[in-house]
């Protein structure tokens, strides 16, 4: 068996078409153009690429975007002042500070400084708290994108054994919370594995749906999964460069061996990545709608 490929590129395109209509309506009926500020601190090459993709997506959809590039040795105080300014700026409905931040900056303080109404990443403790108890809020983009991928690919999650590998605040913990809730792409029985899990393969072999977000290539190989599993690979690892100088990307899952046993799998690139960006656009539009 060779797995069906779940194309995040295709599904994100469908969602973008839906969002375009919402943006036109917001502009024509309410005179509101959604606006996103993206803040990049330092010059990490991967972060630069991600912020560039987010800006490009804004411009393709007709979302106003403002990019702020800051030096890697900026003080926390200066960054907090910038956020304060963006919180008050009426053209800006969403604020995205690309993570990770340099060592001298306390990430948690920065996230807490963002107005929860503009926290389109869904990282502010107020939004995380609301998410956990199932209240309306901005959902973190990657986990929300994963749920949309599953729902729009017709994957049944109700009663499914979902195994998540990786306990980050950005992916593992929120996706665990969302998938156990009574909601679309929810109602699953969820297990979360991490670096101290005793027998990772024992858990991954039980999974009907396996979500891998560890940040390490080949965390999961073909011998660690059961026939017919649906695999969502969240990883983006740069393992070298092509002779033309383009980054070679692989996920956290050993695609070649796992695809022989899986019913469906997301590729890297072209799987979860495009979904994260489109969910950020969706949250930015929602933030703008919330102001009318
Ligand atoms: N770094 C890795 N993923 C993300 C994300 O979704 N948002 C932000 N702000 N930083 C990230």
From TrEMBL:
One of its GO terms (cellular component) is cytosol. Catalyzes the oxidation of 5,10-methylenetetrahydrofolate to 5,10-methenyltetrahydrofolate and then the hydrolysis of 5,10-methenyltetrahydrofolate to 10-formyltetrahydrofolate. The gene is folD. PANTHER family: C-1-TETRAHYDROFOLATE SYNTHASE, CYTOPLASMIC, C-1-TETRAHYDROFOLATE SYNTHASE, CYTOPLASMIC-RELATED. InterPro entries: Aminoacid_DH-like_N_sf (IPR046346), NAD(P)-bd_dom_sf (IPR036291), THF_DH/CycHdrlase (IPR000672), THF_DH/CycHdrlase_cat_dom (IPR020630), THF_DH/CycHdrlase_CS (IPR020867), THF_DH/CycHdrlase_NAD-bd_dom (IPR020631). SUPFAM superfamilies: Aminoacid dehydrogenase-like, N-terminal domain, NAD(P)-binding Rossmann-fold domains. NADP(+) binds at residues 166-168, 236. GO terms for molecular function: methenyltetrahydrofolate cyclohydrolase activity; methylenetetrahydrofolate dehydrogenase (NADP+) activity. The keyword Amino-acid biosynthesis applies. Keywords: Amino-acid biosynthesis, Histidine biosynthesis, Hydrolase, Methionine biosynthesis, Multifunctional enzyme, NADP, One-carbon metabolism, Oxidoreductase, Purine biosynthesis. Belongs to the tetrahydrofolate dehydrogenase/cyclohydrolase family. The keyword Calcium does not apply. Residues 6-121 form the Tetrahydrofolate dehydrogenase/cyclohydrolase catalytic domain. It comes from the Bacteria. Homodimer. One of its GO terms (biological process) is purine nucleotide biosynthetic process. This is Bifunctional protein FolD. Residues 140-290 form the Tetrahydrofolate dehydrogenase/cyclohydrolase NAD(P)-binding domain. NCBIfam families: PRK14186.1. It catalyses: (6R)-5,10-methylene-5,6,7,8-tetrahydrofolate + NADP(+) = (6R)-5,10-methenyltetrahydrofolate + NADPH; (6R)-5,10-methenyltetrahydrofolate + H2O = (6R)-10-formyltetrahydrofolate + H(+). It holds the Pfam family THF_DHG_CYH. It comes from Candidatus Desulfaltia bathyphila. Pathway: One-carbon metabolism; tetrahydrofolate interconversion. Its EC number is 1.5.1.5, 3.5.4.9.
């Amino acid at each position: 068996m060779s797995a069906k490929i779940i194309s995040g590129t295709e599904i994100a395109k469908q969602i973008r078409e839906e969002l375009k209509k919402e943006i036109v309506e917001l502009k024509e009926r309410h005179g509101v153009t959604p606006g996103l500020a993206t803040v990049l601190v330092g010059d990490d090459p991967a972060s630069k690429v991600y912020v560039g993709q987010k800006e490009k997506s804004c411009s393709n959809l007709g979302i106003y975007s403002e990019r702020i590039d800051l030096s890697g040795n900026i003080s926390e105080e200066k960054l907090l002042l910038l956020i304060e300014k963006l919180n008050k700026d009426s053209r800006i409905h969403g604020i995205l500070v690309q993570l990770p931040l340099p060592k001298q900056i306390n990430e948690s303080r920065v996230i807490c400084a963002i107005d929860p109404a503009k926290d389109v990443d869904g990282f502010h403790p107020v939004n995380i708290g609301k998410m956990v108890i199932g209240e309306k809020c901005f959902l973190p983009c990657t986990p929300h994108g994963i749920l949309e991928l599953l729902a729009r690919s017709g994957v049944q999650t109700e009663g499914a054994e979902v195994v998540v590998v990786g306990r980050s605040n950005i992916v593992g913990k929120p996706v665990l919370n969302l998938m156990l809730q009574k909601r679309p792409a929810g109602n699953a029985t969820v297990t979360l594995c991490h670096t101290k899990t005793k027998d990772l393969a024992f858990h991954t072999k039980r999974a009907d749906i396996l979500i891998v977000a560890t940040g390490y290539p080949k965390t999961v190989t073909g011998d660690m999964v059961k026939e017919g599993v649906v695999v969502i690979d969240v990883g983006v690892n740069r393992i070298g460069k092509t002779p033309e100088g383009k980054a070679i990307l692989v996920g956290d899952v050993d695609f070649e061996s796992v695809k022989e046993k899986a019913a469906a799998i997301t590729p890297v690139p072209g799987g979860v990545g495009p979904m994260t960006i489109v969910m950020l656009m969706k949250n930015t539009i929602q933030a703008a709608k919330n102001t009318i």
